[in-house]
Amino acid sequence: MKLDYEQNNFIGEVVAIHASHAKGVTPRLIEEGIFKEDYGLIGDKHSSSIDRQVSILAAESRSEIDSIKIDGFCANRFYENLTIKDLDTSKLTIGQEFIIGSVIFKITGLGKRCFPECNIVKRFGECSLKHGVVFAKVIKEGIVKVGDNLYLL
To answer: Which residue among 78, 92, 101, 120 is the one 20 to 30 A from 136 at the CA level?
Structure first.
């Protein structure tokens, strides 16, 4: 049985979950994450942040970043908690809520600032992090697994 929000509100599928316990440590891929209300992903260094508890990136943006062989300020250091296939961030707004698995998130930020001195910005004008990143906070805790769908509420 489909729930009301599933009818027309599908906007993507989780293809990867990353967590890093400390700054400078390469994030590890996990099959499922436990998200705590007003905290973020358990075991991730960015959790407990007030408004950027969880970072989300469109899989297409991740592919674009990974294909660029230029050292960029953010592109080579940024790792999202959730990588979402088919996510069109242009359809999202700050304050909007969505559900993945049993977790409800609220969007607190869209995009990441580009730095003029970044080699990617110098060459291409901007990188896909400028528009492909979504920051959110956890409204209702629960579990997200690779393969879960994202639905707007």
So the answer is: 120
Largest CA distance in the chain: 52
Q: Which residues of the chain have pLDDT under 50?
A: 1
Q: Which residues of 96-119 are buried (b: 16+ CB within 10 A; e: fewer)?
A: eebbbbebbbbbbebebebeeebb
Amino acid at 125: G
Predicted TM-score (pTM) of this structure: 0.86
- Rg from Cα positions in the chain: 15
DSSP 63-125: HHHHH--S--TTTTT---SEEEET--GGG--TT-EEEETTEEEEEEEE--PPPTT-HHHHHHS
C-alpha span between 146 and 143 (Å, rounded): 10
Q: Is residue 59 within a helix (H) or strand (E), and if so which, with residue range?
A: helix 59-67
Q: What whole-number distance in Å separates Cα of residue 148 and Cα of residue 150?
A: 7
The per-residue pLDDT for 2 is 58
Q: Is 137 helix (H, G, I), strand (E, B) or coil?
A: strand
